[in-house]
Predict the 3D structure of the following.
Amino acid sequence: MDLQATLDRISREVRPLLSEGQVAAYIPELAKVPREQFAMAVTTLDGQVYRTGCADQPFSIQSISKLFAVTRAFQLHGDDLWKRMGREPSGTPFNSLVQLEYERGKPRNPLINAGALVVTDILCGSFDPVEAEVVAFMRRLCGNESISYDVDVAQSELATAARNRALANLIKSFGNLDHPTETVIRAYVRQCAIAMSAVDLSRAICFLAHRGTQPFTGEVILDGSSARRLSALMLTCGTYDAAGDFAYRVGLPAKSGVGGGIVAHVPGEMGICVWSPGLSESGNSLAGWRALELFTTYTSRSIF
Ligand code: GLN
């Protein structure tokens, strides 16, 4: 299989989609990102990197950070995490409040906003500031010391985070948030504002494709069973309320963000990241999603 030729073909084929989709505008700083951009990177477990488009250009990872934050929390607390959140798909948008009221402040899973706020709260018990720990974790995972969070994006979200504050306050009212709401929100928006390239993320995700051990450094991030479990969560919950369709079309564990990035992995083979800022109605990158669908189709890869 010629991976480079496959990526180049995909890059050509998704081009018509780049003018469709909407850039996330509810975070004013993200609304400034030009829509017609595309990047795709694949890192194989033996360290080969394949790329197309602007794959070295950092973008706002947004909800992709939720995957790495929950990995860190899972390392520290294991199954105790599930006392404070579930592991079921929500079937509602990523920032939805309704379910949280019915379910008495226990978020459905750690990959939607409500669950990620509880994960941040848990990390606040071990790290101060939490965002510095998540940044350090990302740097280690991809061997890029220059990774950092974008202060303007974080500030922009902090100024407009009414809905996330509502989620955090509702969770707190049910006794499922230990730290002050504002402390949690500040750490959360900074972690979401981490900027990374498609190449960085395709490398960072490789530990999940490699039974929990980062293949390039040998660092054991999670044991094999925990890595498989987190991957299961990605499949069922990683693309918000579109996870069923994503499993149907793409068939890989993945996590998306409103910055337009999606990370995915092929177990035993490779880490993948796509980026294109135009989103579909479900908040997932339109061209990125299609690129992953074409990738698994052309390479006959899927977990099924
Ligand atoms: N920071 C964004 C938010 O909390 C992340 C959402 C996302 O990427 N889905 O709204």
In short: The first helix runs from residue 3 to 14. The longest strand covers residues 39-44. Strands lie at 39-44, 49-53, 59-60, 148-149, 194-196, 254-256, 261-266, 270-275.
